Amino acid sequence: MNDAPKPEGLRERKRRETSRRIAEAGLNAFLANGYDATTLDEIAAAAGISRRTFFHYFKSKDEVLFASLGNFASVVKASVLAEPPTGMAIDIARDALLNLVGSFQGAEMMATAKVMRESKTLRSRRHTGYLHFEQAIFDGLCELRPDQARNSLRLVSLVAVAAFRLAVETFQQQSARQPLAGYVRDAFEKLKTEIR
Question: Coiled-coil intervals in this record (predicted)?
């Protein structure tokens, strides 16, 4: 029996590319105009689609923004899976988050965080993005270490994302005095010092 995944068909690839294009156009519009001032029509026009087509991909502006967060979470999970399973789980999680911050998507992630912070509508939902990261780390660790207790991997995921969230908030409060990766490393070092 062949368990290899089927190659992506033309229709699926076109749908994925259109979805990515809409999410990118939305994020750019949110950065230029602010989340609350951006309209669905502006996003659709920037993505080169009709308003009607927009609704085949997304139900709302919120979904457009959170699609970006889902993409970042995919990068985190892939980074977890690329690590050797022998290291400490917290170090694997830290390295996956550092990989995201160091990638070209790190700037997009920070832009998304800025949009969420500046919008009254989204401020209360900021934790949703962090939940995406938590789930990505947990799923990746479960695949990487199928024999380890799920509760301990869930705990590592929770704590890792809490440290990451603190790093991002400190980075923003201190007006980026150093690169975000430095804040992430500091947060994880403090965490490891406290749990020894």
Answer: none
**CATH class of the domain defined by 61-195:** mainly alpha
pLDDT above 70 (res 105) = no
Phi, psi of 9 (to 5 degrees): -80, 170
Q: How far apart are CA 63 and CA 92, in angstroms?
A: 29
Instruction: Indicate the burial class of 188 (C-beta count within 10 angstroms; 0-12, 13-18, 19 or more).
Output: buried
For 108-145, give one letter per residue: b (16+ CB within 10 A) or e.
Answer: bbbebbebbeebeebeeeeeebbebbbbbbbbbbeebb
Return the structure tokens found at 157: 């995921």
Nearest-angstrom CA–CA distance, 88 and 170 = 25
Q: What is the mean pLDDT of residues 132-156?
A: 95
Cβ-based neighbour number of residue 36 at 10 Å? 13
Residue 172 corresponds to which tokens in the numbers above?
Answer: 């923003």
Q: What secondary structure letter does DSSP report for 37?
A: T
Residue 62 is which amino acid? D
Taking the C-alpha atoms of residue 180 and residue 171, their distance in angstroms, rounded to an integer, is 6
Average pLDDT over residues 104-117: 72
3-state DSSP assignment of residue 100: helix
